[in-house]
From TrEMBL:
GO biological process terms, semicolon-separated: threonine biosynthetic process
Known pathway: Amino-acid biosynthesis; L-threonine biosynthesis; L-threonine from L-aspartate: step 5/5
Record protein name field: Threonine synthase
UniProt-listed Enzyme Commission number(s): 4.2.3.1
Leader peptide range in chain numbering: none
Organism annotation: Stakelama marina
UniProt keyword terms in alphabetical order: Amino-acid biosynthesis, Lyase, Pyridoxal phosphate, Threonine biosynthesis
Length: 467
C-alpha cells in the first residue's frame, strides 16, 4: 500500500512512513493510492468476529509490508483488550424500531478518539524502535483528541507530545483529562484563541521549513492517516451486526472536523453497503452548508454546549474534495490555496454531485439538541451527550427508507458534558469509577499567546531536536 498527498507533490510513502509523518510535506493530507475493496463474501466473513479480529481484517490492506498480520493482531490486542470498559469495545444499543447507538466512549478517556489513538500510540512506539529520532508530536484539540492522545502517549519512550487547546472552550472534564496527566513527556498548552487557530498553528509548524527540519514532527489529529484507518473498523463491526452485506445501513455522525464521517466514506469505498452518511452539525455549520449548497466558507465560531463541534475549518474535508475531484492534486492545491487566502470556496459540480449520492447533512439548533437529550432519556432510557444528541436529532430528521436501520455514532460519555445533560434531562451523569477522582488530581499546563512565534518558542524550550 502506497500513500499519496492530496496536493500532489509530496513524496509517496508507505504505511510506516505516513504514520510517522502525519501531514504531507506539500501541506496536503495523505490518502491511499487506491481504495482496497472487499467482496460481499469478505464482509459476510466478518460475522461473529471479535472487535480485534474485525480490526485485523479491515486494516491489513492498509498496512502493507510495514507490519505482518501477527504484528498487527498483537497491537490490536494490546490497544483494545483491557483498555476498554466493554468487552465488545464499540457496542450497539437499540433505541427504537430503527435507531441505534454505536457507543464509542468505553475507552480510557471516554470518547471515540480512544479507538484510534490507543492504536496510534502503539504504532508510534513500534515504528520508533531502533530509531535515533525522538518524535515531537504536536496536536490541537477541541476537547477529546487531546485527552485520548495524551493517555495513549504518556510515558512512552522516544516521544514528546505538545497539545494545544483553546483556553476556556473545552469542558472541565475534557481539560482535566489532559492537564492532570503529569508524565514528563506530556506538555499541555492553553492558547488564548479558538480551536481553528490551534489547528492552524499546528499546520503552520509542519509547513515551516526551519521548524519542521529541526524536530521530527508527527501528528495525532485526524490529519494522520493511521487515525482514520482505525476508525473505519467500527463501521464494519456495526454494519455486519445489523445485517450487512445483505442489508444497507445508514450512519449519522456528529462531526466538526470531518474525520469520523470520512472514515465511513472510506468504508463505503471498500464495499460496505452504506445507504447514507448523515453529516450532523451544530450551528457551526460549515459542513452542512458545503454539502447542501456547495458553500464552504468560514464563519465565526460560536461556542455551544457541544464544544468538540465548534469548528469552522474541517481539515479532513480536503480528503473528500480530492477524491471526488478526480484525485487531481494540482487542481486541489489551487482550490485549497484559494480557500486559505480567501476563507471560502465553492465546490465544483463534480464534487457536489459525487457527495450527493452518499452524503446528506443536517444543522441542529440548540433547542433540538436539548429536546433530543430529553427524548433519549424519557423514551429510550438512555443518557447521551450533546454531540451524540446532535447526531441522533439528525438521524430522526432525515427521511430514509423505513427498512434501513440508522446508527448514530455516540462519540462521548455524557458525564463529560454533565451541565448540558442535566439541564435537558434533570439527571447529572456520573463519571465512571475509573476516572471518578478526576477533580481531585493536580493540573499542569501553560498559557501561551496564539501566535506562531510564541507557541514555537515555547515548544523549542522543551522539545528534543533531531539527532
Amino acid at each position: 500500500m502506497r500513500y499519496i498527498s492530496t496536493r500532489g507533490s509530496a513524496p509517496v510513502l508507505d504505511f510506516e512512513q505516513v504514520t510517522l509523518a502525519g501531514l504531507a510535506a506539500d501541506g496536503g493530507l495523505y490518502v491511499p493510492e487506491a481504495w482496497p475493496r472487499f467482496s460481499t463474501e469478505d464482509i459476510a466473513g466478518m460475522a461473529g468476529l471479535s472487535y480485534v479480529e474485525t480490526a485485523v481484517r479491515v486494516m491489513t490492506p492498509f498496512v502493507g509490508d510495514s507490519l505482518s498480520e501477527d504484528e498487527l493482531r498483537r497491537l490490536c490486542e494490546q490497544a483494545y483488550q483491557g483498555r476498554f470498559a466493554h468487552a465488545a469495545v464499540t457496542p450497539l444499543v437499540q433505541l427504537d424500531h430503527r435507531n441505534w447507538l454505536l457507543e464509542l466512549f468505553h475507552g480510557p478517556t471516554l470518547a471515540f478518539k480512544d479507538v484510534a489513538l490507543q492504536l496510534l500510540g502503539l504504532l508510534f512506539e513500534r515504528f520508533l524502535t531502533g530509531s535515533k529520532d525522538h518524535l515531537t508530536v504536536v496536536g490541537a484539540t477541541s476537547g477529546d483528541t487531546g485527552s485520548a492522545a495524551i493517555d495513549a502517549l504518556a510515558g512512552r519512550e522516544g516521544v514528546d507530545i505538545f497539545m494545544l487547546h483553546p483556553r476556556g472552550r473545552v469542558s472541565d472534564v475534557q481539560r482535566r483529562q489532559m492537564t492532570t496527566v503529569l508524565a514528563p513527556n506530556v506538555h499541555n498548552i492553553a492558547i488564548d484563541g479558538n480551536f481553528d487557530q490551534a489547528q492552524a498553528l499546528v499546520k503552520a509548524m509542519f509547513n515551516d521549513p526551519g521548524f519542521s527540519r529541526k524536530y521530527a514532527l508527527s501528528a495525532v489529529n485526524s490529519i494522520n492517516w493511521a487515525r482514520l484507518m482505525a476508525q473505519i473498523v467500527y463501521y464494519f463491526y456495526a454494519a455486519v451486526r445489523l445485517g450487512a452485506p445483505e442489508r444497507e445501513i445508514a450512519f449519522s455522525v456528529p462531526t466538526g472536523n470531518f474525520g469520523d464521517v470520512f472514515a465511513g466514506y472510506v468504508a463505503a469505498q471498500m464495499g460496505l453497503p452504506v445507504a447514507k452518511l448523515i453529516v450532523a452539525t451544530n450551528i457551526n455549520d460549515i459542513l452542512h452548508r458545503a454539502l447542501s449548497s456547495g458553500d464552504y466558507s468560514v464563519g465565526e465560531v460560536t461556542p455551544t454546549a457541544a464544544p468538540s463541534m465548534d469548528i469552522q475549518v474541517s481539515s479532513n474535508f480536503e480528503r473528500l474534495l480530492f477524491d471526488l475531484g478526480g484525485r487531481d492534486g494540482n487542481a486541489l492545491l489551487a482550490q485549497m490555496k484559494a480557500f486559505e487566502s480567501e476563507r471560502k470556496l465553492q465546490l465544483t459540480n463534480a464534487q457536489r454531485e459525487g457527495a450527493a449520492g452518499l452524503f446528506t447533512s443536517c444543522r441542529i439548533e440548540p433547542e433540538a439538541m436539548a429536546q433530543t437529550l430529553a427524548w433519549a432519556h424519557g423514551e429510550a432510557g438512555q443518557i447521551i451527550d450533546p454531540h451524540t444528541a446532535i447526531g441522533l436529532a439528525a438521524a430522526r430528521t432525515v427521511e430514509l427508507d423505513s427498512n434501513i436501520p440508522v446508527v448514530t455514532l455516540a462519540t462521548a460519555h455524557p458525564a463529560k458534558f454533565g451541565d448540558a445533560v442535566e439541564r435537558a434531562t434533570g439527571v447529572r451523569p456520573a463519571l465512571p469509577a475509573r476516572v471518578g477522582d478526576l477533580f481531585d488530581r493536580e493540573e499542569r499546563y501553560d498559557v501561551v499567546h496564539a501566535t506562531f512565534d510564541d507557541v514555537t518558542a515555547h515548544i523549542a524550550d522543551l522539545a528534543t531536536p533531531r539527532s
